[in-house]
Amino acid sequence: MTAVAELMDYADVVERFDPVLGLEVHVELSTKTKMFCGCVNEFGGEPNTKTCPTCLGLPGSLPVVNGKGVEGAIRIGLALNCEIAEWCRFARKNYFYPDQPKNFQTSQYDEPIAFNGYLDVTLDDGEVVRVEIERAHMEEDTGKSLHVGGATGRIHGADYSLLDYNRAGVPLIEIVTKPIEGTGARAPEVARAYVSALRDLLRALDVSDVRMDQGSLRCDANVSLMAKDATEFGTRTETKNVNSLRSVERAVRYEMTRQAAILAGGGSIRQETRHFQEADGTTSGGRVKETAEDYRYFPEPDLVPIAPSREWVEQLRATLPEMPSERRKRIQTEWSLSDEALRDLLNVGAVDLVAATVEAGASPDEARGWWVNTLAQEANSREVELADLPITPAQVAEVIGLVSSGELTNKLAKEVVQGVLAGEGSPREVVEKRGLKVVSDDSALLVAVDEALAAQPDVAEKIRGGKVAAAGAIVGAVMKATKGQADAKRVRELIIERVGS
């Protein structure tokens, strides 16, 4: 049984230590084929059905570079304000592990295609932090190992392992930051905000589906601590393959409190990889972290160097879309949003969702109301990102349209949204299946009004006496009788007409 790690109170951590972060984000490109062969590049499928001699590393097979993969890498580099190499090449990263049958990964080492960039990141309160980018390099993804029989899903304690090479060879871009210093208590927040901003940028470029739940965007979080009077970085740990924004923040915070407790007790930090445990927000030790020398990098002899012409680079620069930060400024002006309202959208990750809902026909105010309030609460209760809810901007716009047309009340609309989230179909299909359409037939409403007035004659008398506010009790009775499917405004009008007649 694994011992529970000692932790230091977070306030004490930031009082005694300065955190230093290094974030490595791996993004799978959405090319049609893999990076060095013609196998289809798509998620899932029966194990080992999307393979060939090249991505299986069989003798005699030779790789060929995917041009679209190189194009995607350059566009990412440009969007991150990087310099693009005039000449670079691939290297072999050697290691012995069954997820890569060649026993090496085709990657880039000392000659990446993009380097020396930055990404400006906006925190919840509007503060902007510039994260320096060390490099963005091309490589191939590995296969997947499934360890069966153990309690943790890790190789230790497992009875046996299964291997699926469908993912082996998928185009991968690794984006590595320079050391991120000076963030203090906000280090976990900065880590989350950076990965979020990077995900938004990659989505805008349309180079990846950035599905963290499917592994097409993964973050390795490096964390070390320096004593306040120290001049050198501390020993780092690398928490591997963190696959949600919330988990990135939790992993950094946990490592800070764990490392601080060890250092304060006179211990030393082991340079190692660690695994994040979603269930309790802790990390557990993995293998000792290798150095570059351990991987025995050398140039890939089967691939020619890549020398993108300056003309091609500028052509690709011209294809870059409006960047998320620029788009937000434009949207703020067009929608007349205050800084606070924009921050609310940013904090729940709703800017692009609201924009897409507006593009689908809703008004900005109505779209904001649904995403920032109702749907954000739903995402919080499910502990998922807002964009991961099983409802699209087009469906939200459809719900808003049904309310605007009078076919739904706001209360009924919330029921429809719940039906969509439950997988019952489109908004109109949910309306039909659940029978939620507003009762707009005056004759049917009058029957309910007459019954409510007859049941509460004293209230009817008050209304006749001029106490119009008393009509609320009758409206409530009618709404109950119609299961909330009546238009409350029209019901009130009918009550006044009926009592006055």
UniProtKB/TrEMBL annotation:
GO molecular function list: asparaginyl-tRNA synthase (glutamine-hydrolyzing) activity; ATP binding; glutaminyl-tRNA synthase (glutamine-hydrolyzing) activity; transferase activity
InterPro entries given in the database record: Asn/Gln-tRNA_amidoTrfase_suB/E, Asn/Gln-tRNA_Trfase_suB/E_cat, Asn/Gln_amidotransferase, Asn/Gln_tRNA_amidoTrase-B-like, GatB, GatB_Yqey_C_2, Gln-tRNA_amidoTrfase_suB_CS, Gln_synth/guanido_kin_cat_dom
One Pfam short name: GatB_N
Keywords linked to the UniProt accession: ATP-binding, Ligase, Nucleotide-binding, Protein biosynthesis, Transferase
Reactions catalysed: L-glutamyl-tRNA(Gln) + L-glutamine + ATP + H2O = L-glutaminyl-tRNA(Gln) + L-glutamate + ADP + phosphate + H(+); L-aspartyl-tRNA(Asn) + L-glutamine + ATP + H2O = L-asparaginyl-tRNA(Asn) + L-glutamate + ADP + phosphate + 2 H(+)
Major enzyme class: ligase
HAMAP family recorded: GatB (MF_00121)
Family, per entry: Belongs to the GatB/GatE family. GatB subfamily.
NCBIfam families per the UniProt record, alphabetical: gatB (TIGR00133), PRK05477.1-2 (NF004012), PRK05477.1-3 (NF004013), PRK05477.1-4 (NF004014)
Role noted for this protein: Allows the formation of correctly charged Asn-tRNA(Asn) or Gln-tRNA(Gln) through the transamidation of misacylated Asp-tRNA(Asn) or Glu-tRNA(Gln) in organisms which lack either or both of asparaginyl-tRNA or glutaminyl-tRNA synthetases. The reaction takes place in the presence of glutamine and ATP through an activated phospho-Asp-tRNA(Asn) or phospho-Glu-tRNA(Gln).
Subunit structure as annotated in this protein's UniProt entry: Heterotrimer of A, B and C subunits.
Entry protein name: Aspartyl/glutamyl-tRNA(Asn/Gln) amidotransferase subunit B
Organismal lineage: Bacteria, Bacillati, Actinomycetota, Actinomycetes, Pseudonocardiales
Underlying gene: gatB
